[in-house]
Amino acid sequence: MKKEKKITELNFFPDYSYFERAINYPYPTPDYAYSFFKGKFIQGIHLDLEKRIPILSVGSNRAPMQLKRKFSINQDLCVTPAVLYNSDIVYAASISAYGSIPATQWPSINAEVELNVLWLTQEQLNVMHLTEAVGIAYNFVKMNSGTVKIKDFEFNGDVYGYVSVAGSLPFEVNEPYRLSEINGINVNLKSINEEKSVTDELNDENKFDLEDVEALAYYDVLVKEDKKTTKIFMKCFKNKETYKELLNKLPDHIDRIGRFYLITAYWFAYTNYYHNDIFGDEINNCLHDIDQEKVLLSSPHFCKKVYHYLMRPEPV
After folding, report:
1. pLDDT tier at 10 (50, 70, 90 boundaries)?
2. Which of 28, 71, 137, 162 is the 20 to 30 Å CA partner of 101?
3. Could you give the CA distance from residue 157 to residue 53 in angstroms, rounded to a whole number?
4. What is the pairing mode between strands 53-57 and 77-91?
5. C-alpha distances out from residue 26 to 22, 59, 258, Å
6. Which domains does the chain show, CATH number per domain?
7. Distance in angstroms (rounded) separating the CA atoms of residues 316 and 304
């Protein structure tokens, strides 16, 4: 155990603006073990880790400011440096409420990346599952034996982690990019920072085309595709009709969950295609208002919240 040392550096708890929070992901992180202990941020391990669950942190869950936001500094927890073998950390195919593109693991033979392991109680892990939208945005997995090594002490138990359900973001070259803020050796993917990734993802080159829009007219889980619904969806879209006009034209056999999805997908596509210059702002405003961190069209709960957001009374 390292000798206790109080850390007062403000750079680990920056007061970011909304935009700064987006482009500075995954946020400043110490290169040493630290704890939230008795309401303080302290260097070193100050908790009994034996009864805690080790979670590999590949993105912002290693950063003090993010853990303070999710748990508060009054929740005792610990973060220890670790190395992940045979994987790299790349941008995931999703976007947060504040506009950042989060991280996920990606297979990469012989790669070694510098990460952290977060040690949580079961109650804290339940909270983390909610913030990671387990089963919707991320899957909770057990890491393969030998792929994670704790730096500060010998540990032979199981380590767990989160992997993006949607996989990696392909960018314009149809391959993932790694996070430049994550140090590694034997890595072979192109590295870019968060600001570059957000800019590339939300610029005009990533504007939907009509094939993208038509693909959103059905979804295998929520709505079984039928030609009539697709035709109505696309006709309304090409005629620049509003989502409310689409709603009035949907066939009667489309159930409530299907309507939630179709209206959400239509608004998302319509804003991207016809109002691309304000697309990012519109989506971020919606996510902030419905208290969601990511766009999750595959989630009925998410689509329901967006639907009611869109159908709210206009301000007088």
Report:
1. low
2. 71
3. 10
4. unpaired
5. 9, 5, 35
6. 5-201 (3.10.490.10), 207-310 (no CATH)
7. 24
CA pair distance 295, 261, nearest whole angstrom: 12
| Cα–chain center distance at 44 | 28
Measured between alpha carbons, how far is residue 236 from residues 208, 275, 307 in Å? Answer: 16, 16, 18
Check pLDDT > 60 for residue 202: no
Pairing between β-strand 77-91 and β-strand 34-37 as defined by DSSP bridges: antiparallel
Q: Measured in whole angstroms, how far is the alpha carbon of residue 49 from the centre of its chain?
A: 27
Higher-scoring residue by pLDDT: 207, 195: 195
Reduced to 3 states, what is the DSSP secondary structure of residue 28?
Answer: coil
Q: Where does 127-236 show beta strands of DSSP type E?
A: 138-142, 148-150, 160-164, 178-179, 184-185, 191-192
Q: How confident is the model at residue 221 (pLDDT cuts 50, 70, 90)?
A: very low
Q: How confident is the model at residue 205 (pLDDT cuts 50, 70, 90)?
A: very low
For residue 70, give the H/E element and its range. Answer: helix 64-71
Q: Are 53 and 122 in contact (CB under 8 A)?
A: yes
pTM score, whole prediction:
0.67
User: Which tokens is 230 given?
Assistant: 């697709």
What confidence tier does 74 reach under pLDDT thresholds 50, 70, 90?
Answer: very high
Average confidence (pLDDT) over 199-213: 62
Q: How far apart are CA 56 and CA 173, in angstroms?
A: 28
83 bridge partner residues: 114, 149
Structure tokens at 135: 């089963």
Q: What is the DSSP letter of 81?
A: E
